[in-house]
Write a structure and sequence with these properties.
heterodimer; A: alpha+beta; Arc Repressor Mutant, subunit A; 2 domains; 3-stranded antiparallel sheet; two-stranded antiparallel ribbon; 8 strands; B: alpha+beta; 9-stranded mixed sheet; 5-stranded mixed sheet; 18 strands; elongated
């Protein structure tokens, strides 16, 4: 069995190193970036994935551009990668247009949300729906459908029931999306913000 | 031909219509109207469609045989004016724009036309003219035959489609082509091999001028790959990506082993391979700035490293010299490098930025130089969330720029990220004008002290030479004993990237310093396993092989210093 990849992260590089680059276009300024960094660090520490190591010393024969502060070494197991994907979905939703600025979310709450997200099933389109809520401006059934239908499948290896096999295109229709949203509401993952159609959906924090 | 390339999605939308894929667009040729009932979408869109129908039957082929999109939108500008907009690609064929201008400039609500950002006009695709065919965009769930009511009675053949914004996919390059250096750089090579390019103080002195000329000619940032190639081909500086997790830094510059006769050494820059390409460029520029400004310091370090194999006290002396006599040197060296590297991101020809700013008007005022510096720099740091230019977000962008500039000017805040350090350096450059390296004299003084010490100890036998240096480690005339109290302060690290110092099995009594046998892995032990075979660095051709334990047993009173291969060297060995 191969050992997990190990990456060194800094404030400058954590998004790229942890596969969270999609967040970069949503972070409005460096202050918000700092908040996201703190949240990600808190999450990694709660997962026991971070190791603080003294920076390796330099040699007299070299000049180093060192990473400011203590280097944070992260063990990237496949399980952690899954969780980080969940974290990214949560962060996209929290940074999303409709949800306002990055809120103060405790590490425990964040971990709970990530656990909720990682339980969503790709093969039934549940994960794609929740991801879409972080990507669309208006979090309605129709926006989610437009965001998915006819586009390349996000998880082509998940044997999703809505994937058109040739071309790996998503055919998740409006009716099926409405049913899935209702099912996710029943499972406490989502809630409706309003009572009359078109419904606006929000992730239950 | 308009420069907006549209394609069609393979899958239709949920309503069964074709879907046009739109790229992200910046500047567009915009007709601006005051928002009023006359310019509501239900009035503007039919007018646009009627115009397109006229174009479709125009006798002029130059006008008729076109394919271009039309965006429409509504926006409120920063002065509070509510506007409606019609936008065409920019550039657009003149006959097409002339038709649009002729059709709309006479409207009472018409304000002006110009090249504006699509986002500032709130534009979204509304229609498309394609070689005589007219497409109008509707909602994704509308059936293909359900035209908007305002278009039903026009008597024009219209196809209803929907549109989708296509993500950029591969990042568009924003790098400029760098002009090759004006003169050939000089370096020493005995074999003619591309790997055998060594530098001396003399060749560095020539090269720094050539590199500065090259920098002066740089019109815009040239990107990591181009700079990497240029450094290798034109300046004899190898640049390698280092993927090892133990390489816990952005990058470093180091010298290779010195040749005895001319004290020449290869120069190598290592860049952390996991960085984004934009960061790699900024880090490479920083390391190159070290070469330009601080080569003598690197050379001094290399001399100290090699002399310490037999005179280990020299390493402590060197650290002590820096710590006591030049306590700010290493800090200043970094500041220096950040300042010079900032010219690779904001080329010299844009300096002084203040003069450049005085030629620009934004809202009737010249922008502050710091604002322009922030604006230019932020696009090169991927995780700082670059703000796309926008008039409608002008105030928010300014506020953010002010905050980050203020933060960078406070040293305690600015030093926590590469962006902060680079921004602070560029601001210093702007405020000080271009100055010479602040540490050049100090570095030469350090080099002279080390060379002077070596010259003075050269006639002595090794034991006397070591004793002599040890005595110098004590400043106040106190006897330098074997138990120097400040070893930690002297930073005698035993483990660093690709270097490991292992103490002797039987250290000589009475001293904490130990001579060491320099070892490199045998070619068949490229990863440098301790249990694998190693060779004596100074006599690679004739050295026997042995494990680290073998070598320690061979000279129990000597330590060993292991120099592992960098990843590119390991790969080279594997490929042979």
């Amino acid at each position: 069995m191969s050992s997990p990849a190990q990456v060194v992260i800094t404030r400058d590089t954590f998004l790229g190193q942890l596969g969270l680059m999609d967040l970069s276009s949503r972070i409005r300024d460096r202050r918000e970036g700092d908040e996201v960094y703190k949240a990600v660090l808190g999450f990694l520490q709660a997962e026991n994935a971070v190791e603080l190591r003294e920076a390796s010393g330099g040699q007299v024969r070299e000049l180093n551009l060192m990473i400011p502060g203590t280097p944070l070494h992260v063990r990237l197991t496949s399980e952690l990668k899954e969780k980080l994907n969940g974290l990214m979905i949560i962060a996209l939703i929290l940074l999303g247009i409709g949800q306002g600025a990055w809120p103060t979310v405790g590490t425990a709450v964040l971990a709970g949300l990530v656990a909720k997200i990682t339980k969503l099933r790709k093969e039934y389109g549940e994960l794609c729906i929740v991801e879409s809520l972080g990507e669309v401006a208006k979090r309605s059934d129709e926006s989610v459908c437009t965001n998915l239908y006819g586009r390349p499948c996000r998880y082509p290896n998940a044997a999703c029931q809505f994937m058109k096999s040739e071309g790996q295109t998503c055919l998740f229709g409006l009716a099926e999306i409405k049913q899935t949203l209702t099912a996710l509401e029943a499972r406490d993952v989502l809630r409706r913000e309003n009572s009359v159609e078109p419904f606006i959906w929000k992730v239950r924090l | 031909m308009a420069h907006v390339k549209l394609s069609e999605r393979s899958e239709r939308d949920p309503g069964g219509k074709k879907v046009d894929l739109y790229p992200e667009v910046g500047l567009v040729r915009t007709l601006v109207f005051k928002r009023c009932p006359e310019t509501a979408r239900e009035r503007l869109l039919p007018a646009v469609v009627r115009l397109l129908a006229r174009i479709a039957v125009s006798p002029s082929k130059r006008l008729r045989e076109r394919d271009f999109p039309i965006w429409m939108g509504e926006a409120t500008n920063s002065l509070g004016t509510e506007m409606s907009t019609i936008a065409l690609p920019d550039p657009i064929a003149y006959p097409v724009f002339k038709e649009f201008y002729a059709a709309f400039h006479g409207w009472d609500a018409y304000i002006e036309s110009g090249a504006y950002l699509l986002a500032d006009g709130g534009g979204e695709p509304a229609a498309r003219y394609s070689q005589g065919g007219i497409v109008v965009y509707g909602g994704a769930f509308d059936p293909p035959d359900q035209l908007p009511s305002c278009l039903r009675d026009l008597g024009v053949n219209i196809e209803l489609r929907s549109w989708q914004l296509q993500s950029a996919g591969g990042r568009r390059t924003r790098y400029a082509r760098a002009e090759p250096p004006r003169r050939a750089a000089s370096f020493v090579s005995t074999t003619g091999s591309p790997l055998d390019k060594r530098h001396t103080l003399d060749s560095w002195s020539d090269n720094r001028d050539i590199i500065l000329e090259f920098l002066y000619d740089l019109k815009a940032p040239c990107g990591f790959k181009q700079l990497q190639e240029l450094l290798g081909d034109s300046f004899g500086i190898g640049v390698a990506l280092e993927p090892s997790p133990s390489f816990d830094r952005y990058g470093c510059i180091r010298l290779g082993w010195l040749r005895d006769d001319d004290k020449s050494a290869p120069v190598r820059i290592l860049i952390n391979s996991r960085l984004d390409d934009r960061l790699k460029y900024a880090v490479l520029a920083h390391e190159l700035a070290h070469y330009v400004q601080h080569f003598p310091l690197l050379l001094t370090g290399q001399i100290v490293e090699e002399q310490s194999w037999t005179m280990p006290e020299l390493e402590a002396y060197y650290h002590d010299l820096l710590r006591r006599d030049h306590p700010q040197l290493l800090r200043d060296v970094e500041l220096d490098a950040f300042e010079l590297a900032s010219f690779f991101l904001i080329p010299p020809q844009l300096h002084p930025v203040g003069r450049f700013a005085s030629a620009i008007l934004e809202r009737g005022q010249n922008p502050e130089p710091a604002l322009l510096i922030w604006r230019w720099l932020q696009t090169w740091f991927p995780e700082g969330s670059a703000e796309p230019p926008s008039w409608s977000r002008y105030d928010a962008i300014r506020e953010r720029a002010d905050r980050e500039v203020q933060s960078a000017m406070r040293p305690e805040d600015g030093a926590d990220s590469l962006f902060g350090c680079t921004l602070a350096a560029a601001l210093r450059v702007e405020s000080d004008e271009l100055s010479h390296s602040r540490v050049e004299g100090e570095i030469l003084a350090v080099l002279q002290k080390i060379l002077g010490l070596l010259a003075m100890t050269a006639p002595l036998d090794l034991r006397e030479a070591r004793e002599n240096i040890r005595r110098r480690l004590s400043r106040d005339g106190e006897a330098a004993g074997p138990d120097l109290p400040n070893l930690d302060e002297l930073s005698l690290g035993t483990r660093s990237f690709c270097r490991e110092l292992i103490p002797p099995l039987r250290p000589q009594e009475g001293t904490v310093f130990f001579p060491r046998i320099p070892l490199v892995p045998a070619s068949f032990n490229p990863t440098g396993e301790v249990a694998g075979d190693w060779q004596y660095l100074q006599r690679l051709d004739s050295s026997p092989y042995g494990t680290v334990e073998d070598w320690r047993n061979h000279r129990p009173e000597y330590g060993v210093v292991l120099y592992r291969f960098e990843t590119w060297q390991q790969e080279l060995l594997r490929s042979l």
